[in-house]
Specification:
By secondary structure, this protein is an alpha+beta fold. Helix 7 packs across helix 8. Bound molecules: heme C (5 copies).
Length: about 325
């Protein structure tokens, strides 16, 4: 019964989104049009049956895209803050797949909500096309690894404020052709019933191979560290011995991906008894020297006398915070 209500909610939202797309041509350039449509109202309803997915999403940066204090602060000095809302409180992206979404008026605090990604012409688009009485489902290529660039790129392909066009990097480097995908790295695989009864937890379908909506991102130090392939080697050059640090980018785009973030590398040569042998090599990679996709950059320090080992520390600077990603010793 209640399910029917949500579906009619989605249908209404979509009808409005479609009308907006069909609006004056000028709107396509400046997608600030907001509607009174309840596109976001669907989120609470979805939670009744997609309990685990909803919990993951709510804690994710997508769930927090409107509430994010950094976002709310940034709006304060904007003459036309509504220009920003298209990605932080969007209408469904499916109707404009690959282009910046329209902004939404209703339930903005739901941020990038369920309907933003899944609502499609009054139906629910997903990876399977699983039949259910709850809603009309349809399999859509944007929910498969090789098609996800279109979905994610709707919002991650524009350089605006501190945000960089990461989807463009991914596309230019032809990483999809090498089996990589946005969801492959950022949404970990899980096998489970994708819908459960909100009251007793009973599965409402078979176990399926799907993905977690707990977006893995730079806020997770273990994940963030996978961005780099690090190496330290002793090399001979210009008649001297050097310690060479190599930093390779293994992410699907340049790093960092926001102009306000940076990575600090500290290579400390050590003596046999673990004391510092000379000054460390200090390197920062940030907005003015971003590491491109697949790039490896090398840095050298003359090998200090008595250095038999090194300690390598990597830190991520993230707003006011600095988080250690790696702290390792290795013999030379
Ligand atoms: C085209 C889509 C899009 C639009 C339009 C947009 N943003 Fe964002 N915004 C993003 C994405 C994507 C991120 C996350 C980027 C990341 O974490 O790498 C983000 C993150 C942010 C952050 C968080 C930065 C942090 O340090 O955590 C702020 C602040 C922000 N945006 C401000 C704005 C402002 C102000 C506007 C309007 C001028 C705006 N955004 C318009 C897509 C958009
Ligand atoms: C009354 C329970 C119920 C509600 C409410 C509900 N769903 Fe579902 N949903 C299901 C069931 C059952 C399935 C199919 C489970 C299976 O076969 O594995 C499903 C499947 C899905 C799928 C997979 C589609 C596919 O086949 O690829 C998506 C995506 C989805 N739901 C999203 C949503 C969203 C978004 C909402 C809110 C707008 C929502 N659902 C509301 C019960 C519900
Ligand atoms: C409707 C717009 C939209 C779509 C579609 C979208 N994102 Fe986002 N994404 C955002 C915004 C906005 C933020 C930043 C929220 C904030 O922190 O203020 C964000 C944040 C993120 C972050 C967290 C970055 C951080 O700094 O922690 C990751 C990772 C991410 N998105 C990946 C994806 C992937 C993968 C997809 C495709 C499945 C996707 N996004 C689709 C708008 C979108
Ligand atoms: C940023 C886009 C985005 C948002 C927001 C989003 N999803 Fe998804 N969702 C996806 C993608 C991509 C997949 C396909 C994952 C895969 O390959 O299995 C997916 C898959 C699903 C599935 C199928 C099960 C699975 O693991 O594949 C369900 C059900 C679902 N989502 C429900 C929801 C619900 C409910 C919400 C809101 C609480 C939500 N989604 C929010 C992108 C999104
Ligand atoms: C090969 C794995 C991989 C692929 C593919 C990938 N990413 Fe990432 N992404 C990472 C890693 C690792 C980080 C953490 C490094 C960082 O934050 O700079 C990251 C960071 C991010 C961030 C946060 C940037 C920042 O500096 O705060 C966003 C947003 C993001 N990815 C979105 C995407 C989108 C959208 C796609 C598809 C176009 C994508 N990623 C493809 C691994 C990947």
């Amino acid at each position: 019964m209640a399910a029917a209500l949500w579906i009619s909610g989605i249908g209404t939202a979509l009808a409005i989104a479609v009308a907006a797309v069909g609006g004056p041509a000028g709107l396509a350039v400046e997608p600030v049009r907001a509607t009174a449509g309840p596109a976001g109202a669907a989120t609470a309803g979805c939670a009744d049956c997609h309990v685990a997915i909803h919990d993951e999403w709510r804690e994710s940066r997508h769930g927090a895209a409107w509430r994010d204090p950094a976002y709310q602060r940034a709006l304060r000095d904007r003459a036309r803050p509504e220009r920003c809302h298209g990605c932080h409180a969007p209408q469904p992206v499916q109707e404009r797949l690959g282009r910046q979404p329209w902004a939404r008026d209703a339930e903005r605090d739901h941020g990038v909500d369920c309907a933003a990604c899944h609502a499609w012409r009054g139906r629910i688009a997903g990876p399977f096309g699983a039949a259910t009485d709850a809603h009309d489902s349809v399999a859509h290529p944007a929910f498969r690894p090789d098609g996800s660039i279109a979905l994610c790129g709707s919002c991650h392909d524009t350089t605006i404020g501190p945000v960089l066009a990461l989807a463009r990097d991914f596309r230019d480097a032809q990483l999809a052709e090498r089996g990589k995908s946005c969801i492959g790295c950022h949404m970990p695989a899980v096998t489970r019933a994708i819908a459960t009864d909100g009251a007793d937890g009973a599965p409402l379908g078979p176990e399926r191979r799907g993905r977690s909506h707990a977006l893995r991102g730079p806020g997770d130090p273990e994940f963030c560290a996978t961005a780099f392939k690090l190496g330290v080697e002793v090399v001979q050059a210009a008649g001297a011995e050097w310690l060479e640090l190599s930093v390779g980018n293994r992410a699907g785009h340049r790093v960092p991906g926001l102009t306000t973030r940076s990575f600090h590398f500290r290579l400390q040569p050590l003596t046999a008894d673990g004391r510092a042998a000379g000054a460390p090599l200090l390197v920062t990679i940030g907005a003015d020297n971003l590491l491109a996709v697949a790039e490896t950059r090398r840095f050298r320090l003359p090998r200090p006398p008595g250095a038999t080992a090194v300690e390598l520390e990597v830190e991520h600077e993230h707003g006011e915070e600095k988080v250690v990603l790696t702290d390792e010793r290795q013999p030379l």
